[in-house]
Write a structure and sequence with these properties.
- Strand 1, helix 1 and strand 2 form a beta-alpha-beta unit.
- Helices cover 45% and strands 14% of the residues.
- The radius of gyration is 18 Å and the shape is globular.
- The chain is of the alpha/beta class.
Length: 257
């Protein structure tokens, strides 16, 4: 039996990937849906006819890695697909954000991705796929979305390099770099009691658009997926322009200077 393991499965892109796999986008027999909120996982399972095994883990806690590793050792699954979609961000100055929140962001966005990849690869045969959710924020330094962008830069570079390292094993790795996407991400990213940092959104995509494009790119063997003209244009622009100019433009656009 071939399984897909999807983290952050209770909402957003993770939930959309569950729907995608359940609708037959991959040759998978069962989904292992991982998230912190057990009630949301059960709700997802009850609304999905496809076989879904729910696993409640807080991946920001390093203790969860051993629980996950123990489950793999016990079940000895054949993992055809691993999707790391768990993560969160804060739109706030670093010094105005509690240290534990910033460190927790690094734990979930970076350490959990690395842990899940390294623990899962031994169970992945040739032809398997890893998809890690990064962001267009990975392409440049972004004041006031500082830590989030930095964590996604790690995910992007880690994924692309890991793709080369695992090539001889036949395991393909791709980083997905969404632009602004309409999910519950914003509920945690934006402090409701403060003046919002981000005031202008150039574009806002739907989760199903991001996942559909990512799946097409994965089938083509790409190591990075970007959805939409504006996302591609921004990625190109910040590659060409000096990052000091990019940051100045961002600060003026969002009225932060």
């Amino acid at each position: 039996m071939k399984i897909a393991i999807i983290t952050g499965a209770s909402s957003g892109l993770g939930e959309e990937y569950v729907k995608c796999v359940a609708n037959g986008c991959a040759d998978i027999d069962e989904i292992w849906a991982i998230a912190r909120r057990a009630d949301r996982l059960e709700e997802l399972k009850n609304h999905t006819a496809f076989p879904v095994r729910t696993i409640s883990l807080d991946l920001s806690d390093p203790a969860s890695y051993e629980a996950y590793a123990a489950l793999l050792r016990e079940e000895q699954p054949e993992v055809g697909l691993l999707i790391n979609a768990s993560g969160f961000g804060k739109f706030r100055a670093v010094m105005d954000t509690p240290l534990e929140v910033n460190l927790n962001m690094v734990d979930l966005n970076c350490k959990a991705v690395m842990a899940l990849c390294q623990l899962t690869v031994p169970y992945m045969p040739s032809g398997s796929q890893i998809i890690n959710i990064a962001s267009v924020a990975a392409f440049q330094p972004i004041p006031y979305i500082n830590v989030y962008g930095a964590t996604k830069a790690l995910v992007l570079h880690y994924s692309r390099a890991l793709n080369r390292e695992l090539k001889k094993q036949g395991v393909h790795v791709m980083a997905v770099c969404p632009f602004w996407t309409k999910t519950e991400f914003f509920d945690r990213a934006v402090a409701s009691d403060e003046k919002p940092v981000v005031k202008k959104y150039i574009a806002m995509y739907k989760p199903e658009e991001i996942v559909a494009q990512a799946w097409k790119d994965a089938k083509k063997g790409k190591d990075m997926s970007k959805c939409g003209f504006k996302a591609r244009l921004q990625a190109l622009g910040v590659k060409i322009l000096p990052h000091s100019m990019v940051m100045d433009t961002w600060l003026r656009q969002q009225e932060l200077e």
